[in-house]
Each structure stands twice: as structure tokens, then as C-alpha cells.
Amino acid sequence: MTVPGDGRRKAGGGSAPFGRDVVLAVGLAGICVGGLAVFLKTTAGAGAGVWVVLVATAVVLAAGAALAKRSVSPVRRRTGPPVPGPAPHEDPYPIEATAALDVPAVAGVPEVGAGALDHAAVDADGFEQAIAALCARDGCTPVEVVGGAGDLGADVIATTPDGLRIVVQCKHYADTHRVGSQDLQRFGGTCFAVHGADVAIVVTTSSYTTPALEYAAACGIVCVDGEALAAWTDSAVAPPWESDSRDATARVSTA
Q1: Cα separations (Å) of 179 from 3, 171, 209?
Q2: Fewer Cβ within 10 Å of end Cβ, the chain: N or C?
Q3: How many helices (H) and strands (E) does the chain have?
């Protein structure tokens, strides 16, 4: 059933129009022949000349042949490549192009804002982050906070601008809780042999016992107490991994 108004032909449907054209051509030829027969009978009865009959016959036959040829002429179809249709609608501003891109933070560099350096307002975990921020502020990269269970004494590991590997142990203690020699001995057993430190540093919010300072001086561990930490935070002294700071710590520990 043909849907009204649908001018499209189904694939392979070209034979049906051609059959209709043949039938039409045969019908036209039959009409021409019948008309010719009537014409010849009429003219013969009227006694018309033979030449008139021949001319009329030729005209009728030519007209019929022309109509038949026109009817059965195949429809020329385009054999070239198909003409592309209109391009589908494309959004000139796709979501992927307009979505805000997530800019990743620089790997190995913690935040160094004023809040990140405030070691007095944090807990033990926050203290490690604050020390890492101080290292990053003074040019260390990368800086990693590695403290936790099984850290073997290392809380922060960083690389200085001069390429030195520093290993820091953080002691977030109250003012009355001093860092003892046992703390230093545990750290001294791993900071160089296990963590491969070029400079080993212990930073505390309190102070050290005399035996702890003596052990540190003997092993080459830099000790930063609460006062030295405040000065480092305020950039009043050089970072503890620099040679002048290490020399000053050694002089204090042996005094």
C-alpha cells in the first residue's frame, strides 16, 4: 500500500514504472493502427487519391512511433557519487570543551601558605605537614610526608635545592616533655642506614636533654628545638640542612 504524499520508491522498484510505460506504448500504437484503419476505409470509400492515403499513413505511423519511444525511454538515473545530505547538527560548544579543567597541583610540593606554617595550632599529624611546608617554602622538592606506622623514624623526606636528601623526624611534644637520648638513638639507627639521609634532622616543639644532644652531635644529627623552629618559621635563620645551621647546632650540643 502506498502512503499518500510519500514520493519515495522502495529499493528495487524501478521495474514497475517501466512495465507501465510498455503498456502505455502498446496502447498508443493500437490506437494509431485503429485510427489508420478507419481512415483508410473512409478515404477508400470516398475515392481519395492513393498519395493522400500514403501521406496520412506515414504521419500517423511516425506519430505513434514517437509516442512509443517517448513512453518506453528509460529514466536516466544519477550514476555519480551520492550528493551528501546536510551535515548533522553539531554543537559548536560541546560540554567537554566548556567544562572547567581540573588543574592538578604540583606533585611533591605541599601548600606553603601562612596557615600551613602555623605549627603551634596543629596536632601531631598537622605538625608533620607544617614541617613539610617549611621545607617546600625553602626550596625543597619533592617533599613527602611519610610518617605513620612502620615509618622507621622518618616523618618527612625531601630533597634540598642543592640535591641533598634530608630525612626529618617530627616530635610534637609539650614544653615540659623533652626529647631524650632514646628518641635520638632510634632515629640514628635508621636515618642514614635505612633512609639514606644526607642530612638527618629532628624537629621538636619542646627541647632536648643533654644526653640526646650529645648523641646527636656524635652521629651528625641536626636538632631543632622550639626556639630554633620559631626562628626557622620566621625565616630569621637559615634552614637546618644548610652548613651554617648544622655547625651552630653542633656547637650548642657540645657546649
Answers
A1: 95, 8, 6
A2: N
A3: 8, 5
- pTM of the predicted structure, to 2 decimals: 0.55
Answer positive or negative: Cα dihedral of 81, 85, 91, 96: negative
Cα–Cα distances (Å) from 90 to 86, 100, 101, 162, 166, in that order, read 11, 21, 22, 54, 56
Q: With a cut of 50, which residues of the chain have pLDDT below it? A: 1-14, 71-78, 86, 90-109, 112-114
Q: Tens of pLDDT along 195-237?
A: 999 999 999 999 999 999 999 999 999 999 999 999 999 999 9
Taking the domains of the chain in order of start, what are their residue ranges? 16-72, 115-254
- Cis omega (within 30 of 0) on the bond before 110? no
DSSP 208: B
